[in-house]
């Protein structure tokens, strides 16, 4: 693991995805996971079911929130949404880099210094044939690298990247950019629908700053013990 990575408490680098059906289940999980991981990810499923109150409620329990709504709209709408997310107390949030340079710049300007705004490149559900269909030539990796560059040039300080994109992104963008990586599976864990996962240790060694982990923790019989095992494994 690089020395910068080793210096940070590994628990703070874990983001637990609260992909749960409603606020009661999500808040029970926040209470169960004590001491807390770095952040809790609130995504579309939970946000649509529970509304912005879920962000306040997680914060009231002492949790920090990554609001993963993957915003993509005209620059004015996205920059206002970023402002709203920040006022709500989200410390990390996502936008789609497919929104283009003007949208990215507006969003980056709207994000206050204390918020880490992350750009999402190509979803791992898309393959090369999906790119062809929407008129994109080149490989998935080329398109990821192109979008990431536009994001960084537009003022973003962070990216979401799948395990297989970590090394090329780190090589190109150095250590200044924060990289958040989902698709993490501890050794021996159920892969669920993750096709190209890395273990927590592998992902940190490949250059991730934060790991997004959902079901290996939230669907475990004892979520807190599962989180503790992952932390112990990367120390
Ligand atoms: O349960 P699991 O650990 O697979 O959850 C991973 C989380 O990361 C989910 O919230 C999922 O939507 C998200 N994610 C992903 N792969 C991507 C982008 C986001 O698994 N490429």
Report what the structure shows:
By secondary structure, this protein is α/β, with parallel strands linked by helices. 44% of the residues lie in helices and 17% in strands. Strands 1-2-3-4-5-6-7-8 form an 8-stranded parallel β-barrel, surrounded by 5 helices. Helix 5 (75-88) runs parallel beside helix 6 (101-110). 43% of the residues are buried. Mean pLDDT is 94; it is low at 1-6. Cytidine-5'-monophosphate is lined by residues 17, 19, 43, 123-124, 162, 182-183, 192, 194, 212-216. Cytidine-5'-monophosphate (C5P) binds at residues 17, 19, 43, 123-124, 162, 182-183, 192, 194, 212-216.
How many helices?
Answer: 12
- Number of separate strands: 8
Output the CATH class name.
Alpha Beta
Give helix % range: 40-55%
What is the spatial order of strands in the main beta sheet?
1-2-3-4-5-6-7-8
Rounded average pLDDT: 94
3D shape:
globular
Portion in beta strands: 15-25%
- Specify the CATH architecture: Alpha-Beta Barrel
Q: Stretches where pLDDT falls below 50 for ≥5 residues? A: 1-6
Q: CATH superfamily name?
A: Aldolase class I
Essential attributes:
single chain, 235 residues, alpha/beta, TIM Barrel, 8-stranded parallel barrel, 12 helices, 8 strands, 17% strand, globular, binds cytidine-5'-monophosphate
In short:
With 235 residues, this protein is α/β, with parallel strands linked by helices. The chain contains twelve helices and eight strands. Residues 17, 19, 43, 123-124, 162, 182-183, 192, 194, 212-216 line the site of cytidine-5'-monophosphate (C5P).
């Amino acid at each position: 693991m690089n020395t910068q990575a080793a210096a940070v408490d590994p628990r703070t680098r874990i983001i637990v995805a609260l992909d749960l059906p409603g606020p009661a289940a999500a808040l029970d999980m926040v209470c169960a996971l004590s001491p807390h991981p770095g952040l809790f990810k609130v995504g579309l499923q939970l946000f649509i079911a529970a509304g912005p109150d879920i962000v306040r409620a997680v914060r009231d329990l002492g949790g920090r929130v990554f609001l993963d709504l993957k915003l993509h709209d005209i620059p004015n709408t996205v920059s206002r949404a970023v402002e709203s997310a920040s006022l709500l107390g989200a410390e990390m949030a996502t936008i789609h880099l497919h929104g283009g340079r003007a949208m990215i710049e507006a969003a980056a300007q709207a994000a206050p210094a204390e918020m880490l705004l992350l750009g999402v490149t190509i979803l791992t559900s898309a393959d090369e044939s999906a790119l062809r269909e929407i008129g994109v030539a080149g490989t998935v990796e080329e398109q990821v690298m192109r979008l990431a560059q536009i994001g960084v040039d537009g003022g973003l300080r962070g990216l979401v990247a799948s395990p297989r994109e970590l090394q090329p992104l780190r090589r190109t963008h150095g250590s200044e950019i924060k990289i958040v990586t989902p698709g993490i599976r501890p050794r021996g864990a159920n892969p669920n629908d993750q096709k190209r996962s890395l273990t927590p240790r592998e992902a940190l060694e490949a250059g991730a700053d934060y790991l997004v982990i959902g079901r290996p923790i939230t669907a475990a019989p004892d979520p807190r013990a599962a989180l503790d095992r992952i932390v112990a494994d990367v120390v």
